[in-house]
TrEMBL record:
Family, per entry: Belongs to the helicase family. RAD3/XPD subfamily.
UniProt superkingdom: Eukaryota
Biased composition annotated in UniProt, kind: Low complexity: 83-93
NCBIfam families from the UniProt entry: rad3
UniProt-recorded name of the protein: Regulator of telomere elongation helicase 1 homolog
SMART domains membership: DEXDc2 (SM00488), HELICc2 (SM00491)
Reactions listed under catalytic activity: ATP + H2O = ADP + phosphate + H(+)
Any one GO MF annotation of this record: 4 iron, 4 sulfur cluster binding
One GO CC term, this protein: nucleus
Subcellular localization: Nucleus
Region annotated Disordered, chain positions: 70-95
Residues forming coiled coils: none
Keywords: 4Fe-4S, ATP-binding, DNA damage, DNA repair, DNA-binding, Helicase, Hydrolase, Iron, Iron-sulfur, Isomerase, Metal-binding, Nucleotide-binding, Nucleus
């Protein structure tokens, strides 16, 4: 296992590291050593998670040994308020704890799998919720606060139904000091609990006090209640936020709330139920554990709040009612709700929740499975407004807003209009500053899409002196990125509200997608700025496009090339849409599928469309949020006011934030296309606004070097076709059967398609069956011959060694046992002590396409790639001869397949035909160079896989035979073409003689 010395730290890495990975690890260690915060962007497929783990754990190990193998109990009696307060002298001497967070548990599951691949074995645990960890037969069926309260109730010894799993935790952890020494996930904890008896939830809570590294979702750190429950020494600890591109939004939402009048009405009803239940218990069984007067007071306060909100004067329905953040204390003060009384009110709500749950269990035990107590939302709101420290300074970053919404029958109460009372936080740094107060060592934020970084750092109100925008590890020929400002007819693409409704825009966009659907193999993703525009265009395409020369609508022409799937608005229908898309990709009778989706939707955020699942991404516009949305408008006003009050300093304005939010959504969407180092694909920006420098500067750095703006649509079609044609030859081919992976989900390895010897009969039959339409831009029928110069690809060099991208940051000699590396950004040294040449990105994990948890995985069988293409790439003279022998079976007896194979054919005729075909192949091999002959073989393979049309391939092969000394081959090749294509062949031959290239005709 290679060991790299980075800034004096020996980092043991499981594979040979790329330059960009060494730079990434160097930045991580610099952040840890300097106690500085870091923003680190590295595209998906560059191994950032593995780099982050190895660098962080190597640094931690340099400070002292891990806690594994020792029954060391650190601060077991430290919890609750103590963990939030100042540390004692003995606690401050502890080694730092690493808290590694990500967006979802499925992503954390993948991080744990990456940890298993390293040599490091720190003591670790994954924190999960009761919904994931509880094994009690009754409590495990509940959800939310209902489940939490039921768990607390059953863990009390005085309870008759005392949980038997809870008391076993302490003894089990004590008797198993090695628990957590090896990487364990949530599923492992659950299995331990089921087999040995201890509660997995409380077992993880016990373990987290003594671990070296703790894994948890974001909300365990951001939510004050969850954070308070952690027994962690925050001073000097390391906080890592992986997949942090949405962190600012999560922080702001966690500190905000919306209170609809319908929810408030339900809370009033529940408060009345509590009054009735408490009175009934007191009268019937003399039970005085619940005071009905407290619930009556709660109801009265909620009624007053409802009345106060309904009395707010709203002059403009569009603008609503807005006040500065501190106004909320004035409003609640009128109701006598202050810091002192809020605590009592929260306690009353907790009693009300327990009372309602007990009543539900008594009346209908099954009812508790779906019980939702809405009063809990009032408790959460009070905790956001009235912080435990009694400080109201954070209110200046808020705005109070009341707006009227469309009245529904379910949202009305006694004829009152439906309103939403909101308290919105416009400074995400409110949540992050809590960590700065606790003197954490470093905060590292990393993701594949953090750009633009300036706005990201400004939003979180933290200083990030260490930043990195890493390049990708792919080659230049693996990505095509282009800006398409105009459509086939020359009409400009612009999805802004001024032009998006015009028929010309929708017609050109539809015709463009028809062309791209024909060019792009397998999966195609089309992202719209909004659901409105998505539905608008699809409705138009389904009813438009029929002309005198074309009887099909645009939608029918798209469906001819790709089977469509449309992203649903409802989350419940999304798994079905994904399943449908996967099934259409697997359908061998089609040429792929197209997924119409929206930026910021589930398709753009959560799924991994690697390989055939996403060969190209089309972005149809810039997803600007609605300017008249109250939250957006107030956010912009807030930032502009901040900018005016801080003149002379570089701050984020409302317009800059507005633009950069849209750009970040675009970066997230286009990140679906390249998912690992062997992947290839195209990114197509169909909006003229992307040609402006300010928008291009906000696109992810790894895409910018590949980005090119095309003034003519024909140039786009030509270069894009050439890209996929060359990629079919130079890039490893994956099987068509595919699965879509949600980050963190694990699947079996994707196998490579077998390039079997092309059986003569099957090959030519498929060739004959292929349409002879020439390459063109729909709905034009003009053709475009290919240039031999543009087609040439050195396949053997491409496949024999895949080099990392962008070696400008570091100089690295992979052949030496010991090298020294210098980062151009700083003077720190990186040394290699040991060296093994092993791929960093293991194909078992990075090249896979696995389904998310809600999709049943399908087992796909595929033969191994032990065939002609591998032999063709060996480069030896012996194998080249063997290729010629094998190729005889592909072209011999062509006359028979062409229609001469009657029952009167004799074996002698077959032998003569075989000799004739063999002789021709020998002559072809002699006249063509090694690269050209491999190219010739590639075109035959493309025909077999239906990657190219017969007309296109004929032109390309004729281009190979067009040199003066190869003209005899050009003439003889006609003998091996089916008679039905002789006319087409003669037509191309005539064009070749008169002109080497034909321009693309547009409508």
């Amino acid at each position: 296992m290679p060991t790299y010395k980075i800034r004096g730290i020996n980092v043991e890495f499981p594979f040979e590291a790329y330059d960009c990975q060494l730079v990434y690890m160097e930045k991580v260690i610099q952040s840890l050593q300097d106690r500085s915060n870091a923003l680190l962007e590295s595209p998906t497929g560059t191994g950032k998670t593995l780099c982050l783990l190895c660098a962080t754990l190597a640094w931690r190990k340099s400070l002292g040994s891990f806690s594994t193998g020792r029954n060391a109990i650190r601060s077991q009696d430290t919890g609750g308020k103590n963990s939030e307060g100042p540390s004692s002298q003995s606690e401050s001497s502890r080694l730092p704890t690493i808290i590694y967070t990500s967006r979802t548990h499925s992503q954390i599951r993948q991080v744990v799998q990456e940890l298993k691949r390293t040599i490091y074995r720190p003591k670790m645990v994954v924190l999960g919720s009761r919904e994931q960890l509880c094994i009690h037969p009754d409590v495990s069926l509940l959800h939310g606060k209902t489940q939490t309260n039921a768990c607390h109730f059953l863990c009390q010894k005085r309870t008759k139904r005392y949980c038997t799993h809870f008391p076993r935790v302490s003894e089990f952890v004590k008797n198993n000091p090695g628990l957590g020494d090896e990487p364990i996930d949530i599923e492992d904890l659950v299995n331990i609990g089921k087999q040995s008896g201890p509660c997995p939830y409380y077992m993880s809570r016990e373990l987290h006090k003594v671990v070296d590294i703790l894994f948890a979702p974001y909300n365990y750190l951001i939510d004050p209640g969850n954070r308070k429950s952690l027994s962690i020494e925050w001073a000097n600890s390391i906080l890592i936020f992986d997949e942090a591109h949405n962190l600012e939004g999560i922080c702001a939402d966690a500190a905000s709330f919306d209170l609809p009048s319908s929810l408030l009405t339900s809370c009033i009803s529940e408060a009345q139920n509590c009054v009735d239940l408490a009175v009934s218990r007191r009268d019937q069984s003399n039970d005085t554990s619940y005071n009905p007067d407290n619930f009556a007071i709660l109801k009265a306060l909620l009624l007053k709040l409802e009345k106060r909100i309904s009395e707010v004067q709203i002059d403009s329905k569009e603008l609503g009612f807005t006040k500065p953040g501190p106004y909320i204390y004035e409003l609640f003060g009128e109701l006598n709700i202050t810091h002192k009384t809020a605590t009592k009110l929260i306690d009353t709500i907790e009693d009300a929740t327990v009372l309602l749950e007990e009543d539900a269990k008594t009346s209908d035990p099954q009812k508790t499975k779906g019980t939702v107590n809405r009063l809990e939302s009032i408790s959460d709101i009070l905790k956001i407004i009235f912080k435990s420290d009694g400080n109201d300074a954070h209110a200046k970053y808020y705005r109070v807003h009341v707006q009227e919404v469309e009245v529904k029958s379910s949202d009305t109460f006694k004829g009152k209009a439906s309103r939403i009372f909101s308290w919105w936080c416009f400074n995400p740094g409110v949540a992050m500053e809590e960590f700065a107060k606790r003197d954490v060592g470093s905060i590292i934020l990393t993701s594949g899409t953090l750009s633009p970084m300036d706005s990201f750092a400004e939003e979180l109100k933290l200083n990030f002196p260490i930043r990195l925008e890493n390049p990708h590890v792919i080659q230049d020929n693996q990505l095509w990125a282009g800006i398409v400002p105009v459509g086939p007819s020359g009409h400009p693409f612009n999805s802004s509200y001024r032009t998006r409704d015009s028929p010309e825009y929708k017609l050109n966009l539809g015709n463009s997608i028809v062309n791209f659907a024909r060019i792009v193999p397998d999966g195609l993703l089309v992202f719209f700025p909004s659901y409105y525009l998505l539905n608008l265009c699809i409705d138009f395409w389904k009813n438009t496009g029929v002309t005198s020369t074309n009887s099909s609508t645009i939608w029918e022409r798209i469906c001819k090339h790709k089977l469509p799937v449309v992203e649903p608005r409802q989350s419940s229908l999304f798994p079905q849409a994904i399943d449908d898309y996967m099934a259409k990709l697997r359908d061998n009778s089609t040429t792929g599928a197209v997924f119409f989706a929206v930026c910021r939707g589930k398709v753009s955020e959560g799924l991994d469309f690697a390989d055939q699942a996403g060969r190209a991404v089309i972005v149809t516009g810039i997803p600007f949020a609605m300017r008249n949305d109250p939250k957006i408008r107030l956010k912009r006003e807030f930032l502009d006011q901040q900018a005016l009050s801080q003149k002379g300093s570089k701050v984020l304005t409302g317009e800059e934030w507005y633009s950069q939010q849209a750009s970040r959504a675009v970066n997230q969407a286009v990140g679906r296309v390249i998912r690992h180092r062997h992947d290839h694909g195209a990114i197509i920006f169909c909006d003229e606004r992307f040609s402006k420098s300010n928008h291009q500067s906000q696109i992810s750095l790894w895409i910018r070097p590949h980005l090119k703006c095309y003034s003519k649509f024909g140039d786009v079609v030509f270069t894009l076709t050439r890209f996929f044609r060359d990629a079919a030859i130079s890039c490893p081919v994956k099987q068509k059967s595919t699965q879509i992976q949600e980050p963190g989900e694990k699947s079996s390895r994707d196998k490579i398609i077998s390039l079997d010897k092309l059986d003569q009969d099957k090959f030519l039959k498929s060739l004959i069956a292929t349409s002879d339409k020439s390459w063109s831009i729909e709905p034009s029928s003009s053709s475009l011959p290919c240039s031999s110069e543009l087609r040439r690809v050195n396949i053997s060099s491409r496949l024999s060694q895949i080099l990392p991208a962008n070696r400008s940051n570091l100089s690295f000699n992979a052949q030496k046992q010991t090298s020294s590396l210098k980062n151009n950004n700083n003077n720190s040294n990186v040394e290699i002590k040991k060296h093994e040449v092993i791929d960093l990105v293991d194909e078992e994990t990075s090249s896979e396409l696995s389904a998310p948890y809600f999709i049943k995985k399908r087992k796909i069988e595929n033969p191994k790639n032990e065939n002609l293409l591998q032999k063709c790439e060996s480069g030896t003279r012996e194998v080249k001869k063997e290729i010629a022998v094998e190729r005889r079976t592909e072209f011999v007896n062509l006359e028979t397949v062409r229609g001469s194979s009657s029952s009167n054919s004799t074996s002698l005729a077959c032998e003569n035909q075989e000799k004739k075909g063999s002789t021709f192949l020998i002559q072809v091999r002699e006249k063509l160079s090694d690269g050209e002959y491999k190219e010739f073989v590639g075109f035959m393979k493309a025909l077999k896989s239906k990657a190219m049309k017969i007309g296109h391939v004929l032109q390309c092969i004729m281009g190979l035979f067009s040199a003066p000394d190869r003209l005899p081959l050009l003439q003889r090749f006609k003998d091996y073409i089916p008679a039905k294509y002789h006319t087409l062949y003669e037509e191309y031959l005539e064009k070749t003689k008169t002109n080497d290239a034909v321009a693309v005709d547009l409508l």
